[in-house]
Design a protein that fits this description.
alpha+beta; Nucleoside Triphosphate Pyrophosphohydrolase; 7-stranded mixed sheet; 6-stranded mixed sheet; globular; Znr_NADH_PPase; manganese ion binding; NAD; zinc ion binding; EC 3.6.1.-
């Protein structure tokens, strides 16, 4: 079966196709969603920084209009990427998640980081080029480790002050240069709750609606130590029994998947599937 969404570098000189518009407030959306006829969208009064051909959805080309600022278009409004993640159309979320990554990367590389000269898009390649330095910049991915720590029927969950009130989740953090995924996981757990872990097992991955972020999901077993939440980062952290869990993250998130997977295995239930 042909995937509904396939990323690709498309020629912006070609006519037609669909387009999404992204600005500081998210994606432009109307009653039919965020996909607009490209030629119609380009005729609107939009402050376009750049246009990028990003792929094919159901065989149709899709383009991104990265905007300098939001604009008012009759019958339309702006919606953030997280709201699409919580919606029913996961394929649409993947399209917009990719568009957001490409738009952020291109916006941040309009000028060369070495000499300060303007950069140009490389035809037929996802790269920005500085002719003065002969330097190419490609979209980068920042790996983040996310881990569910378990102790028999208990799972260690924590909450950040930034979370929705009452919600607890798994621990996570970005990898530092030179770290392996396992090194990062062990360090982050020590920093955030001061416990030790063992038997680290990779579970799966998911792109996350933050710039450049790729979440690598793990399961680890508790190996020792008392929970001491990291000041300013962790508001609370506790062991929760799998029969009595607190409010949890959104069902489409890898954090929720790690929790649901362990609970299902512990209780003998059908295992969930991580949204692709």
């Amino acid at each position: 079966m042909t995937p509904r969404w396939i990323t690709a570098v498309l020629d912006t000189d070609l006519p037609g196709g669909w387009a999404v518009a992204r600005g500081p407030d998210g994606f432009l959306i109307d009653g039919n969603g965020p996909l607009f006829p490209r030629e119609w969208l380009k005729r609107q009064d939009l402050s376009v920084l750049a246009e990028h051909g990003i792929g094919h959805l159901d065989g149709e080309p899709v383009y991104l209009l990265e905007l300098d600022r939001a604009a008012h278009i009759e019958g339309c409004h702006w919606q953030g990427l997280r709201a699409f993640m919580l919606g029913d159309d996961h394929t649409l979320y993947k399209v917009l998640g990719y568009a957001a990554q490409i738009g952020t990367w291109a916006r941040e590389h309009r000028f060369c980081g070495s000499c300060g000269q303007g950069m140009t898009q490389v035809p037929r390649e996802r790269a920005m080029y500085c002719a003065s330095c002969d330097l190419r910049n490609y979209p980068r991915i920042s790996p983040s480790m996310i881990v569910l720590i378990t102790r028999g029927d208990e799972v260690l969950l924590a909450r950040s002050p930034r979370f929705v009130p009452g919600v607890y989740s798994t621990l996570a953090g970005f990898a530092e240069p030179g770290e392996s995924a396992e090194d990062c996981l062990i360090r982050e757990v020590r920093e955030e709750v001061q416990v030790e872990v063992s038997n680290i097992q990779y579970v799966g991955s998911q792109c996350w609606p933050f710039p450049h972020s790729m979440m690598l999901g793990f399961h680890a077993e508790y190996a020792g130590g008392e929970i001491v939440p990291q000041a300013d980062e962790i508001e609370d952290a506790q062991w929760f029994n799998v029969h009595h869990l607190p409010p949890l993250p959104a069902s489409r998130s890898i954090a929720r998947y790690l929790i649901d997977l362990y609970v299902a295995r512990r209780l003998g239930h059908a295992e969930p599937v991580l949204p692709g």
